[in-house]
Structures are given as structure tokens and as C-alpha cells.
Amino acid sequence: MAASRTRRRRHETRSSAGEHRLWPTLAVVVAALAYAVLPESLLVGPRLAIPAVELVLLGALLVTNPRRLVRQTRWSRGISIALACLVIATNLLALAMLVRALTSSKPDGMPLLLAGMQVWLTNVIGFGLLYWELDRGGPVARHTVARDRMPPADWRFSQDENQDTVVEVASTSSVRSNWRPEFVDYLYVSLTNSSAFSPTDTMPLTARAKMLMGLEATAALLTSLLVVARAIGALGQ
């Protein structure tokens, strides 16, 4: 019993250290760069306007948590969610413009095909950021709040249900190791949803999670169909 309590305290301490800021920061930078190099016909306003806003919001968040995500205020949480929504919203607008361009009579082939790949990549990043921000109260709450006080989960990961399997698998379960999902886990959920157009190993539990995954899968499917159709059309010319 004493050893079990010691392990639990060690796991809680490790979790309360907070998630590292590096990967979500890099994801935002990649999304901003991907938008900045889109063709002019797919941009909303000046080329650098949206990336500049995204990077300014990111800078404000870095001031609050420069290294690890251990502090959260109402405005910092609002900015975090607003940043993810901005990435998604501008990318969906770019997708709408891409649809119009690819279905026009004389679309500029190769640049638009590359733009389709950029839109798909930004789709993965944007929804991954939003999933990460919403689930179980966000990244700060997931690592600093006790499980019995954490908001309800929006997604169920494999680690949340494998505590009764073989020892080497069960040892990394949420129950036994105090595992908490981090940004890479949500980015993987977003990637598989955009690739398979449906959940794979991680299931949505709430209505908002299902609606967001449905929107992401629809956008990814539309992008893929347009790019494939245009590529086939180009080969036939």
C-alpha cells in the first residue's frame, strides 16, 4: 500500500509539472507559414495579416507560459481557443476559395494543387489545437487538476480503458500511470480523422467533439477529392 501511494504521488507530481510549450508553438508557426505562402487568390486580406495576428496571439500566450503550461487565466484561455479558431476559420475560407478556383474554367493547376496540400495540413493543425484546448478543461487543467475535479472528457483515448490488459500495456494506462493526453495525442487524432474521415482509436464522447470531428472530416474529404480530381484532370490533358 505504501509503495502504491508513493507511485501515485510521483505520478501526480510529474503531471503537475505541466505540458511543454514547444510542440503546440511549432504547430502554430507552421500553420502561419502555410497560410502565408498560399496563392494570392486564397488569401483573406494582405498576405501577412492573418499570420501576424496568429503570431501576436501566440506571443501573448508565451508570456503567460513561456516554457511549461502551468498557469491559466480567463483571458489566456480565451486567447488560446481564439487562436485555434482563427487558424480553422481562415483555413476553411481558403478551402472555399480553393473550391471556387479548382472548379473554374481555367484554374492555375500546380500552385492550386500545392495549395490543397497546405490547406489539408493546416486543417490537421487547427483542429488538433482546438481539440487540445477543449478536452478536459484544456492543457493546464489536465496536468494541474486532480482527476475527480477535472471537467468531463470530450475524447476517450486507448490509455483511458486499457488498465485491465496485460501488464506491459496496462502499466501506461490512465488509471495506473496517471497518464494525461498532450498535444501530440490530439494532433494524431486530428491527423487520423483527416486521413480516414472518421475516428480511429480515439472516440468522441460529447456532441461538440462529434460536431468538430465531423466538420474536420468533411473539410479534409472535400480537399482530398478536389485535389485528386484536379490531378486526374491534369494527367488527362
Structure summarized in a few sentences:
The protein is mostly helical and 237 residues long. Helices cover 67% and strands 3% of the residues.
Class by alpha and beta content = mainly alpha
- Describe the largest sheet: 2 strands, antiparallel
Q: Please report the number of helical segments.
A: 10
Please state the average pLDDT score.
Answer: 88
Q: Approximately how much helix is present in the residues?
A: 55-70%
Kindly report the spatial arrangement of strands forming the biggest sheet. Answer: 1-2
Strand content: under 5%
**Radius of gyration, in angstroms, nearest whole number:** 20 Å
Order of helices and strands: HEHHEHHHEHHHEH
The total strand number stands at 4
Poorly predicted runs are 6-14
Distance between the termini: 73 Å
Secondary structure blueprint with pairings:
Elements (H helix, E strand, L loop, with lengths): L1 H15 L2 E2 L1 H15 L12 H16 L3 E2 L4 H29 L6 H26 L4 H6 L10 E2 L10 H4 L3 H4 L5 H14 L6 E2 L2 H29 L2
Antiparallel strand pairs: 1-2, 3-4
